[in-house]
Amino acid sequence: MSEDTAVNLKTMSAKDALGYFLPKLDEDARNAKKEGRLVCWSASVAPPEFCVAMDIAMVYPETHAAGIGARHGAPDMLEVAENKGYNQDICSYCRVNMGYMELLKQQAMTGKTPEKLKNSPASAVPLPDLIITCNNICNTLLKWYENLAKELHITLITIDVPFNHEYPVTQHAKDYIVGEFKHAITQLEAICGRPFDYDKFFEVQKQTQRSIAAWNKIASFLQYKPSPLNGFDLFNFMGLAVAARSLDYAEITFTKLVKELEEKVSQQKWAFGDNEKSRITWEGIAVWIALGHTFKELKGKGSLMTGSAYPGMWDVSYEPGNLESMAEAYTRTYINCCLERRGEVLEQVVRDGKCDGLIIHQNRSCKNMSLLNNEGGQRVQKNLGVPYVIFDGDQTDPRNFNEAQFDTRVEALAEMMADQKAQGGNH
Length: 427
Known about the structure:
Radius of gyration: 21 Å
Distance between the termini: 48 Å
EC number: 4.2.1.-
Order of helices and strands: HHEHEHHHEHEHHHHEHEHHEHHEH
Oligomer: single chain
Cofactor: [4Fe-4S] cluster
Mean pLDDT: 95
Strand content: 5-15%
Number of strands: 8
Number of helices: 17
CATH topology of the domain at 28-196: Rossmann fold
CATH class of the domain at 28-196: Alpha Beta
Low-confidence stretches: none
Protein name: 2-hydroxyglutaryl-CoA dehydratase, D-component
Pfam family, one: HGD-D
InterPro entries: FldB/FldC_alpha/beta
Largest sheet: 4 strands, parallel
């Protein structure tokens, strides 16, 4: 960064820093391409530390798909993918990504920008030289990234992690994943034509841990009652937890937000002012295509989101220099664990957020996030006395979300929470 930029960063708010760094990641990738350096497209919870240590620019299709969805640009990308034969039942992140990948390919071959790519966030994304994926959140990623590699004729690095049928993570699982890490390093050495930089890798690991420590600190403010933090803000800032946790971009922004939240607590400035009537846990991915509507509908009932297991998937805390510790961090995502562990995580989120209710996104695009939704809701209701509702939706396909149904479920949850309080419930 230039000195002027560094000075400006000192005066930026956390929100301004977020708005500066997210597009800067795309700019960094475009500059890498121009300079002849490698660009990697990566799955959201695949470890970026290996590529960053080798000076490879990182791009995250899931983050771009969410951004495209939030800006109402998903239908164009979905249409391109579906016209090519990708079924509507496939994850909409995947279809959005395959759609803009196809358009970027056309642009590269013809030198002309396809109409659907004009004025789209996808137009800022450079095509990759390699891709890396990890199945610690879902197995769709394996086929999705295999298809990317086949379409683009580039190398795919896959880090396979076992599903945790028991918890804590077993020693043999950690040993296996360390082997996967070492194989990825060997692949990168072949791709880059030079030895892996273990010294820089150690520094990147330390940077990752500083970013994640600040990310976890932000989430801890949801425990205040009233809360200075609106949980929906975590969904927005999550973009840097995904795409920049191994860079100082995330640490800088998250540290700013921590300081702002500390000031709000000291000044007793709460997210909903005096209108925090109830607190809810949101289970599942955000409905990016209707983020404003879902937030406003809850806010209209005075329901503040103070719990979500979703942002915690980027709590990849580990000991730098210890590959076994890193392996454990990248396999313990709660949706890569057995029902018992998943239930424990959800209960803890509800307790930490001092939540009165649970709203669950039955996401057509994400089978792994949705498969055990009802069991999780029943467990929370039985063990904590917290009511729950489930609504149908999608992360980026607007055809699978109905505002009226969502509003009806929010109304039902508000009534159940009010009844619970009237009866002297736990929350």
